[in-house]
Amino acid sequence: MRVGFFVTCLVDLMRPSIGFAAIRLLEAGGAEVFVPPTQTCCGQPAYNSGDRADAKALAAKLVGEFEECDWLVTPSGSCGGMIRTHYSDLFRDDPAMLRRAEALSTRTRELADFLVNELHLERVPGRYECTVTYHDSCAGLREMGIKTQPRALLAKVAGLTLTEMADCETCCGFGGTFAVKFGEISARLADNKCQHIVNSGADAVVLGDLGCMLNIEGRLRRRGDHKTRVLHVAEILAGDAA
Amino acid sequence: MQVASMHFKERAHVKLHDALLQSNLKKMQGKFVAKRRASLIELDDVEGTRDAAKEIRDRALENLDVWLELFERNATARGATVLFAETPADINALVLEIAARHRVRKIIKSKSMVSEESSLDHAIEAAGLQVVETDLGEYILQLNDYEPPSHIIGPALHKSKEEVADIFARRHGTPRRTEINELCLEARQMLRQHYLTADMGISGGNFFVAESGSVVLVTNEGNATLTTTLPKVHVAISGLEKIVPTLEDVATLMRLLPRSATGQSISNYVDILTGPKGEGEFHGAEHMYFIIVDSGRTAVLASEVREALRCIRCGACMNHCPVYQNIGGHSYGWVYPGPIGSILTPMYVGLEKAADLPSASTLCNQCGVVCPVRIPLPDLQRKLREKTFEQHLRPWSERAGLRVWAWFAQRPVLYAVASKVGVRVLRWWGGKGGLIHSLPFGGGWTDERDMPAPTGRTFRELYRGHAQSPAPSERPRRAA
Known about the structure:
heterodimer; A: 242 residues; four-stranded parallel sheet; 52% helix; B: Rossmann fold; 3 domains; 50% helix
């Protein structure tokens, strides 16, 4: 099983360790991981900003890079959602590209979902003697159906206790370029999220999208909270968090 | 209503720092959400009902002209007069014409958001007539010098009962009462005299039923029933998209509307009004008029956001929107706030006057998930973002930043070089703590947040070194 791993631009730039943790998990599940070296971005920032031409160019580039793989797996519900649910809209006027994009879309999976539902991962190497709470990122939850998968995986981590925060499905306020265009509103939403995290009593908030991670961590630190950790689910599962 | 949507950001800033409003919004938050959820469970097949509702609305919009003609024929046959308003000004002109014809001096109104589009109350007063709002929320706002509504089903939701107590005491000249029951009773006593002395009642219209020529009104206070039946003239004003083919269709939509709106299985009152009072009938207005409003709606019908016209105005999208919940309805600057407003406002008043609204959402899709008629609100917002991009309605810096980034992202070699430099600079910028406290051109982010700094090398550089060694499956397991 040849799995094309889409690192995502944010993991590539900001926190490469998440990418390596994800690859270790995929390999532990028996996948042969291929990382197309020319990959950059799925085109979502352009798409959501109304720049359809650039979004299309980047999407076409990504399709070409991954279509030979059996699966495309990515440690982000947001980028996965872009490929799986929006590429068909981008290529609605281009039948040839549409066919290729849809063929890839159906084989696109978010990491936690893939580990649970395709690789049926039984054991995870990670060990984490802490209480964590899980934030459901919007695109993962509402575009990719990611809800039980990361929780099922976290349940396999030795020593870990999962506690649910209030409003775990409410947006953290990131929203891509929204976070910069409407920084003040975005920060307020992030602040509400931080309050729920703190109220949950968890030592760490775990999630599956780096955009939300940067937003939540950035707000937590500005609030003066240097204690609550912000971790990608792959980091915990792979044992990078301990 | 005067459009203030171009000042969205400034207005949101003010609202975010309005402590009283924030406390009022917090109290309201979650109530709608929980009630909606609990009442939807009563339905045997929620998703099937939503599919049916969407299909009904699409069927109506698909042949809107046919249904409108049928409605006009049936309503006319029952003795009502059907008028069409192309612009907001036409609404006001038609109302004043009808008022003049029947020598009207006092008008009472039940809630009509469409009449807010044309500032009908102001036009009525400017013509020297008296107008009294009878929906409790609208009544409060009218007393408070025509404060604009902040929510489509609860116009005064942003007000606390203490604020209402102040307004009543000041405007009624009565002792200040703070119990909700007492306040309601006071409003009722004040309004009762107006019901009995008004010459004309204006209502909105939740649905226009084509097969019967009826208007359906969904309310909770009973004021619409009094408004439409006591005065000698009744005028129902609503958008042309509110047409529904049959009464059976209304029954389906009614399974979703009150549940999605207030979490009620059914609203306290549902009025179905067909024609004026007939020969020998005891109740009803002697003259009945319909004003069916275009005012930008046919343009929406012909556009790529036409699905927005399926809207049945339940307000669930705003009740569930994290942005709306934090900034309130006034920030949006026109009649329709929240996710549906971010589509309708630019379409009705002009994208250039509301260019921020389609972008003022995180695209979290909580609205799309709860919409009873399955309007894909984030997709529609994105379509309008494409228009703002095409029409250069966003700041040049935003556009330039996007283009530069996209240019690099399409050139992997240059992108690799640029990103290598970028992450190193940012790492240095973040210092020992690994946190960036301020960023040039990134103030939107760093004014109230830190930016966790990158770790200094990109995944792709690290992976290249890693992959030149053994084949992936034989690779040693190591952390980055």
